[in-house]
Design brief:
3 domains, FAD/NAD(P)-binding domain, alpha/beta, Methane Monooxygenase Hydroxylase, Chain G, domain 1, 539 residues, Flavocytochrome C3, Chain A, domain 1
C-alpha cells in the first residue's frame, strides 16, 4: 500500500538510492556472466538481473555450442556455414572473430574445468545440427548445455568479491547525458526502491524479445527491455525484422512451447505431415538439417495446407542410447504421456531468437559512448538474416569478453547533471498491462510472424501506434513504462519488416517471395531519424 500511495507524489529519499561501480552489467545469461567475470579483473562490477540469476535464454539452451574443434574441421568451414545460414547478410569481420576467437574461448573454458560430453575414450562428442557441414556441436550433460555452461560461469561469478549481484532488479532507463552513458536506473521488485547505478561503462546483456509473441520457447523475462531502453536512449538498432522461429517446439493445447532441440534432428529424426509422410527432402537438399528459417517456413506451410500439426519421429532409428542423450526432453515429454523414441511428437514453430538488435562494432560498443551490448540483445553482424544453430552461446563467449576489453579503458566518472524521475510499482494497473501485452502478442504472432505480407503488417502497425498513443505519458507507473517498451519494439520490428521488400532468412513475405540483391543491406533505425541502410562488411 505504501508504494501505491506514492504514485504521482514526491518520493521519500529511502526509495531512491545511488550506487557506484566501475562496470555495470545488465543481464545474467551467459553473455552477462562472461562480461561480469572478465570485468572483475579490472574493477568493481554490478551484475543486475530481472529475476533470479539463473533465469535466461542461455540457461535453457539445449542444442550446444558450435566450435571448429574437430580434427576434420576448421574455422574457415565454420565461417562459410555461418554466411550461408545468414543469407550473406553477415558482416565478415565479425564472423571471422566469432569462429577464430570462439575456438580459443571454448578451449579456455575446457582448461578452466568446463566438462563437455566425452566418449568412453575421453574424446569430445561432437554433434551435428542444421546448416553445419561438420559435426562441431559440443554438449554438456546431453541436452542441458545451456544450463551446465551458465551454472559453471555463475559459480565463478559468485566467487568473485569484486562482483555484487542484484536479483529481481529491472532496468528502467539508460542514463545518457551529452551522448555519454553514465549508468542505469533500475527498480527493485521486492521493495520498490529505484537504484541509480553509476559507472564508467555499462554493458547490456539483456537477451532477446521472443516473449513478444504468443508462442515462444523463451523464459517469461525475454521481453526485449534492453533493446527498448537502448532505442529510447538514442542507440542505433539493426535488422529488427529478423526473428528466428525455432522449427520444433512441442505443440499441445494449453501448454507452453517446449523446445525440442535441433540436435534431435541432428541424430536423424524425421519430420512427418498429418499423413505420416516425410516432406523436408522435397524442400531442401539437407532435408531436416536445412537452416532453421527454411525448416520453420516449410513446417508453417505444411500446417496451413493440412490444417494439422507436423510431427517429429525417431521411430525409425531404434536407438535406445538417445534416451540418455536427450534425457531432459525425454522426461518432459513423459509428463504428457509421450515417448520420444516411440511416439509421434506434435511440434510447431515458436519464436525463439532475436537475430537483429542493438547495433555494435566488433568490440560491442554501441553508438553511445560508454554503452556496450553483447549476446542476443546485440547486433554485432554475426547472425545475418538467420542464426546458424549453436552460434549463440559462442557469440556470448567471444563478445562478452571483447566488450570488457574495450570498456575497461574508459575513464568516465562525470557526475549527473539532471535529476531522475522515479518509476514505481502499481498493482492497480497490472491487469491493464497483461491485457495489452496479450493483445500485442496476438498482433505480432498473427500479422508479423513467420510468414508476413504488407497488408497485414500495415494493419498491425496501425493498431500498435493506437495503443502507443494511449501511453505516451507513462508518468511514474512501471506497468505503463513497460507498455511503452513493448509498443516501441513492436513498432520497430514492424517498420523494419515493411521496409525489407524481399524474403531473406527469417524474414518471409508472401508479397515479395524471393531474395533481391538490391535489398542486401542492414536496415538501421535510430530514434527521431528516418530508416537508414548500411552495407554488409565483406572485408
Amino acid at each position: 500500500m505504501l508504494l501505491l500511495s506514492l504514485i504521482n507524489q514526491e518520493v521519500p529519499y529511502h526509495l531512491m538510492k545511488t550506487l557506484r561501480f566501475d562496470f555495470i552489467v545488465v543481464g545474467s545469461g551467459l553473455a552477462g556472466l562472461l562480461a561480469a567475470f572478465h570485468a572483475a579483473d579490472y574493477g568493481t562490477v554490478a551484475l543486475i538481473s530481472k529475476s533470479e540469476l539463473d533465469i535466461s535464454n542461455s540457461y535453457h539452451a539445449q542444442g550446444g555450442i558450435a566450435a571448429a574443434i574437430g580434427e576434420d574441421d576448421s574455422p574457415i568451414e565454420h565461417f562459410e556455414d555461418t554466411l550461408v545460414a545468414g543469407r550473406n547478410l553477415c558482416d565478415h569481420d565479425a564472423v571471422q572473430l566469432l569462429v577464430n576467437e570462439g575456438l580459443e574461448r571454448v578451449k579456455e573454458l575446457i582448461a578452466q574445468g568446463m566438462d563437455f560430453d566425452k566418449d568412453v575414450d575421453g574424446q569430445l562428442i561432437l554433434g551435428l545440427e542444421g546448416g553445419h557441414s561438420k559435426r562441431r556441436i559440443l554438449h554438456a550433460d546431453g541436452d542441458a548445455t545451456g544450463k551446465m555452461m551458465t551454472s559453471f560461469m555463475l559459480k565463478k561469478v559468485l566467487d568473485r568479491s569484486e562482483i555484487t549481484t542484484y536479483e529481481y532488479c529491472a532496468a528502467l532507463k539508460i542514463i545518457v547525458e551529452d551522448n555519454l552513458c553514465k549508468g542505469i536506473q533500475a527498480l527493485q521488485y521486492l521493495d520498490g526502491t529505484n537504484l541509480i547505478f553509476l559507472g564508467k561503462s555499462t554493458i547490456l546483456a539483456t537477451g532477446g524479445l521472443s516473449r513478444l509473441y504468443s508462442r515462444s520457447t523463451n523464459p517469461y523475462t525475454a521481453t526485449g527491455d534492453g533493446i527498448a531502453l537502448a532505442w529510447q536512449a538514442g542507440a542505433r538498432l539493426a535488422d529488427m525484422e529478423f526473428i528466428q522461429f525455432h522449427p520444433t517446439a512441442l505443440s499441445l493445447p494449453g501448454e507452453e512451447a517446449y523446445l525440442i532441440s535441433e540436435a534431435v534432428r541432428g541424430e536423424g529424426a524425421h519430420l512427418l505431415d498429418a499423413n505420416g509422410v516425410r516432406f523436408m527432402p522435397e524442400v531442401h537438399p539437407l532435408a531436416e538439417l536445412a537452416p532453421r528459417d527454411i525448416v520453420a517456413s516449410a513446417i508453417f506451410n505444411k500446417m496451413h495446407q493440412t490444417g494439422s500439426n507436423v510431427y517429429l519421429s525417431l521411430k525409425h532409428l531404434g536407438n535406445e542410447t538417445l534416451i540418455e542423450r536427450f534425457h531432459s526432453i525425454v522426461a518432459h515429454l513423459k509428463t504428457f504421456g509421450i515417448n520420444l523414441l516411440e511416439d509421434l511428437v506434435p511440434i510447431a514453430p515458436a519464436a525463439h531468437y532475436m537475430v537483429g538488435g542493438i547495433r555494435t562494432d566488433i568490440w560491442g560498443q554501441t553508438t553511445i559512448e560508454g554503452l556496450f551490448a553483447c549476446g542476443e540483445v546485440a547486433s554485432t553482424g554475426v547472425m545475418g538474416a538467420n542464426r546458424l544453430a549453436s552460434n549463440s552461446l559462442l557469440e556470448c563467449l567471444v563478445y562478452g569478453k571483447r566488450a570488457v576489453e574495450k570498456a575497461r579503458h574508459l575513464t568516465n566518472d562525470k557526475p549527473l547533471k539532471n535529476p531522475l524521475n522515479p518509476i514505481l510499482l502499481n498493482a492497480e494497473t497490472d491487469q491493464s498491462f497483461l491485457e495489452i501485452k496479450n493483445e500485442l502478442a496476438n498482433i505480432m504472432s498473427n500479422q508479423v510472424g513467420i510468414v508476413r505480407n504488407g497488408t497485414d503488417m500495415e494493419s498491425a502497425l496501425k493498431r500498435i501506434e493506437s495503443i502507443a498513443a494511449q501511453f505516451n505519458n507513462p508518468g511514474t507507473d512501471y506497468n505503463y513504462h513497460k507498455i511503452v517498451n513493448l509498443t516501441d519494439i513492436c513498432r520497430i520490428i514492424t517498420l523494419s519488416a515493411l521496409e525489407r521488400k524481399e524474403s531473406r532468412g527469417g524474414h518471409v513475405r508472401t508479397d515479395y517471395p524471393g531474395e533481391i540483391e538490391e535489398q542486401l543491406h542492414h536496415i538501421i533505425q535510430e530514434k527521431g531519424k528516418e530508416i537508414q541502410y548500411e552495407a554488409v562488411r565483406t572485408s
